[in-house]
Each structure stands twice: as structure tokens, then as C-alpha cells.
Write a structure and sequence with these properties.
The protein is α+β, with helices and mostly antiparallel strands. Among the domains are: 46 residues, no CATH class; 97 residues, no CATH class. It is built from 5 helices and 10 strands. It has a 3-stranded antiparallel sheet, with no helix packed on it. A 3-stranded antiparallel sheet has the order 6-7-8. The protein has a two-stranded antiparallel ribbon with strand order 4-5. A hairpin with a 4-residue loop joins strand 4 and strand 5. 2% of the residues are buried.
Length: 216
């Protein structure tokens, strides 16, 4: 097997394994209450709303049809009464146990006096010195992996930061923002000023534009 195909295959297996590990506990902690969804004729909408007037209703225009998203009080009662049948494989206890153990595991890095901790997320840390070798191994589950050596970093909030690596690469994360919208380290530096904010526009795949506003 050519090395390129082998690497792609291994990368795919690694991605699948990572998705299973990272997503499964979220599934256990999912809200055990799903909305009802129906697609009806537009001329039936008024009668439908009158029937479910006491329930939350959202609509999506589909031309001659309307997608209706709603929750009924009776369906909530059914879930509470017949929970064993309608739990959707949700277990808050399992999700809570997983996240609690993760916090316990990460506490060894947050309380370590051998280095300064600048930022920490669910399973990552940004510190100013190397970790002991026994804690680092990219091939063993539960060990840490060195991802970047950083020359400059700006941490603004949880899941909101920008890194400049020793290779000159810009790495940033903004929760909820697509990486199709490019940001620079200067954008993050501008946000360090009080009362400043950043706007990005993406109109029908047009060129991205941005403005920063700062108090004088």
C-alpha cells in the first residue's frame, strides 16, 4: 500500500475514533426532549396554529408548504410518565461522571507550580515550559500531545484566542465562527482595548470585510 494511502487511511481511523470519544458523552448529556416537525400546506397553517395555540411554534417558509416545528405539553408529559420508553439513550449521570473525571485529570496541570498556565480548555493547556516526558505521548490515550510551540498568544475568553507558532503559523479559535472567515493576530490585539469590537461580513459568498471599533 502506498504511504500516501496508508497515511490517509490512518488519519481517517484516527478521526473516527476521536469523534466517538469526544461526541459520545455529549450524546449522554443531551436534552431528552425533541420537538415535533411537520410539513403542511400553507392554507392549513391557521388551523394548525389554533390547535396548538398554547404550545411553542416556529415556522419555516417552503413556498407552497410550511415546515412547522413545535413542542406540545402532552408530549412533555408522556416523556415524564413513560420515561423508560422515551429516554433516547440519554443518561445525565454518565455524562456528568465523564466530565467530572476530566476536570479531576486536568486539575494536575492547573495546580502545578512548576509552570505558568495561561489558558486551559477541556483537554488542552497552554504553559511556559515543557511537561515531564512521562505525561506526553501522542499514541497513548490519556497522555498529552505537543501540538504547538508558541511565540505569541492572545487569550480573550473561553474558546476565543489566537496563537503565533514558532513556524510563523497563525492558529485561532472563535466559538461559533467558521474558519472560512479569516482573522489576523491584529484583529485579536485590537480586541484587547476596552469597549472595542470586531465585525466580519459574509454576504452571499462575497469578499469578507471587517471593521474594528475602539473607544477613544
Amino acid at each position: 500500500m502506498p504511504i500516501e494511502i496508508l497515511n490517509a487511511w490512518l488519519h481517517t481511523l484516527n478521526l473516527i475514533a476521536k469523534l466517538f470519544i469526544n461526541s459520545l458523552y455529549g450524546r449522554f448529556g443531551m436534552l431528552d426532549s425533541f420537538p415535533n416537525i411537520k410539513i403542511i400546506n400553507r392554507n392549513e397553517l391557521d388551523d394548525f396554529i389554533n390547535e396548538y395555540i398554547d404550545d411553542g411554534i416556529k415556522t419555516v417558509d417552503l413556498g407552497n408548504k410550511v415546515k412547522v416545528i413545535y413542542r406540545t405539553h402532552q408530549s412533555e408529559v408522556n416523556i415524564m410518565i413513560d420515561g423508560l420508553k422515551e429516554t433516547y439513550n440519554v443518561s445525565i449521570a454518565i455524562a456528568n461522571a465523564i466530565t467530572s473525571n476530566a476536570r479531576i485529570h486536568m486539575s494536575q496541570f492547573k495546580t502545578n507550580s512548576n509552570f505558568n498556565l495561561y489558558y486551559s480548555d477541556t483537554d488542552s493547556i497552554y504553559i511556559d515550559s515543557p511537561l515531564p516526558k512521562e505525561l506526553v505521548n501522542s499514541k497513548i490515550l490519556g497522555k498529552m500531545k505537543l501540538e504547538h510551540v508558541i511565540n505569541k498568544a492572545i487569550f480573550l475568553a473561553p474558546k476565543l484566542y489566537c496563537l503565533l507558532t514558532d513556524e510563523g503559523k497563525i492558529v485561532y479559535k472563535v466559538k461559533g465562527l467558521s474558519h472560512d472567515i479569516e482573522l489576523s493576530i491584529n484583529d485579536f490585539e485590537n480586541l484587547l482595548y476596552k469597549d472595542s469590537f470586531l465585525e466580519k461580513f459574509n454576504l452571499n459568498e462575497a469578499k469578507f470585510q471587517w471593521r474594528t471599533h475602539q473607544s477613544s
